[in-house]
Design a protein that fits this description.
- The protein is built from 15 helices and 13 strands.
- With 492 residues, it is mainly alpha-helical.
- It has one domain: Serine Threonine Protein Phosphatase 5, Tetratricopeptide repeat (Alpha Horseshoe), CATH 1.25.40.
- It is globular, with a radius of gyration of 23 Å.
Length: 492
């Protein structure tokens, strides 16, 4: 299922000037591009839907990093920078804070302005999706846009839960601009809200009289992957429930957001952040001379162990800071490349994790190996690698099955599982949540690993030590909310 995340170009809108304005430019009245009254009937739903998808795409993908024009970064970039997918390759101290895990605001500090910008983009996406869903419910409840908007809203709650500390408040604003300030919500409450959105979307898409059963199935699959993901992040007690939902989704399912080069807002911001603007480079755990001074840093070997699922290219132009090697991702190889939100491969990985927790070794390998031979997985990896001689840009084909020997090589089944998740779910805003689950105490549904065994630690390559942040604190924008109490906790 593919959708174009872009602004509608309203070619039919003209400027109707008052007669007196023809001779006096100071009296010209410029009408709204889209008058509010025009959004009150079914004819406007397509416009509202396009706007909501565009807002979601900015919060998810971004268009250009702050400082390079555009609107800012999305959760893929900031989550990946705090985790181990990206490394800072420019000079902004706000992004260096995130990359070095030092986002905790010191006494007298106001906020990280770039985190604040992205936080507002995420709330805009949430509000846009929910408001549009409400219009569908009032005007055209049988339209497929209704469950789609509910699903997009559900994903914004997942991003708040996986990325930020506990305590995000969900405020509302009405058509007059009046704000109703929300109370802080725990991580569990945010995930429960996401699941409620997904359940509603699944129910609506299932019972509605659809003239397009393919679209109907895709909408159900989209919401089901989201629900299974939310259940997975809630912890081990929800593994069986997550697997049951994931089992309904075919492996070749994919929901992507489309991009164009028409305007910056319509660009693929993950591509721009590296290849266009040089501010984000791909990170690595054992870089040798790839990142001088970073030898031995914890992380994942995205560079040093080539894999066609994580295609890379060393950019000859170089990075913004002129010092950090700029490795461009080729999963999204251009400004018009579509970007992945949810896949059936993720569903198989969720089933694999549940099987591993239940001690079902055969099922664990069956689910891990399913996407390796499935041609549908090619739909969301770079189809035209730039350099076929580079093993990091080799065309993806049928990958060999994993066996018990791979478990031994990986240092255990959990390592193998999360390595597969790192490759398949690369640059789709999953990695930060996975690292948090790895260090979460076993009693709280995690894997109980030490911080230093999972996260980048030691001396940060741009100076000073790495911090201890495992999520992002709530920024200054929320201080306008009289209910704001800061992070309720900083637990992983």
């Amino acid at each position: 299922m593919k959708h174009t995340a872009k602004l509608l170009v309203l070619v039919a809108v003209g400027l109707t000037l008052a007669q007196a304005g023809c001779n006096d430019p100071l009296t010209v009245k410029l009408p709204d591009i889209i008058p509010p009254a025009a959004l009150s009937d079914s004819a406007a739903l397509a416009t509202l839907r396009a706007g909501a998808i565009g807002d979601f795409d900015l919060a998810y993908t971004g268009d250009h990093p702050d400082g390079s024009g555009g609107n800012g970064e999305g959760v893929i970039l900031y989550g990946g920078l705090l985790a181990d997918e990206f490394v800072n390759s420019e000079t902004f101290p706000t992004r260096i804070q995130v990359d070095s895990r030092n986002i905790t605001y010191a006494a007298g500090s106001t906020t990280n302005s770039d985190v604040d910008l992205w936080y507002r983009l995420m709330h805009r996406a949430r509000r846009s999706a929910e408001a549009t869903a409400a219009r569908y419910r009032a005007i055209a409840p049988a339209d497929p846009g209704y469950p789609e908007m509910l699903t997009l809203a559900g994903y914004t709650y997942i991003f708040f839960a996986e990325t930020f500390c506990s305590g995000t408040a969900v405020s509302q604003i009405d058509s007059t601009g009046k704000i109703t300030y929300g109370q802080p919500r725990t991580t569990t409450e945010l995930l429960d809200t996401a699941i409620a959105r997904f359940d509603s979307a699944i129910h609506i898409a299932t019972v509605r009289d659809s003239a397009d059963p393919v679209s109907q199935a895709a909408l159900i699959n989209f919401a089901s992957v989201g629900k299974a993901r939310a259940l997975l992040f809630q912890g081990s007690g929800q593994y069986a429930a997550a697997a049951a939902v994931a089992a309904t989704v075919p492996t070749d399912f994919v929901y992507q957001l489309q991009h164009t080069t028409t305007t910056d807002r319509e660009n693929n911001g993950v591509f721009n952040a590296g290849a266009t603007d040089g501010r984000y480079s791909i990170s690595d755990s054992t870089p040798d001379d790839t990142f001088p001074g970073r030898e031995g840093i914890n992380g994942f070997p995205f560079l040093s162990v080539p894999d066609p699922r994580t295609p890379l290219l060393l950019d000859p132009v170089g990075s913004f800071d002129g010092a950090t090697p700029l490795w461009d991702n080729l999963r999204y190889g251009g400004r018009a490349s579509p970007i992945t939100v949810a896949t059936g491969v993720e569903a198989r990985l969720i089933e694999a994790e549940a099987a591993l927790a239940a001690g079902q070794t055969a099922t664990f390998f069956t689910q891990l190996n399913n996407p390796r031979a499935n041609p549908g997985q090619r739909a969301y990896f770079n189809p035209n690698p730039v350099d076929l001689s580079n093993p990091n840009t080799a065309a993806i084909g049928v990958l060999p099955d994993l066996t018990g020997a791979d478990t031994v090589s990986a240092g255990g089944a959990v390592n193998l599982l999360f390595a597969e998740r790192a490759r398949w779910l690369w640059l789709t805003a999953h990695r930060l949540g996975d690292l948090r689950r790895l260090v979460r105490p076993i009693a709280n549904g995690g894997y109980g690993r030490a911080d230093a065994a999972v996260w980048p630690t030691g001396t940060y390559f741009k100076g000073g030590p790495y911090g201890t942040d495992e999520n992002i604190p709530l920024p200054v924008t929320e201080q306008n909310n009289p209910n704001f109490r800061g992070c309720l906790d900083r637990n992983p």
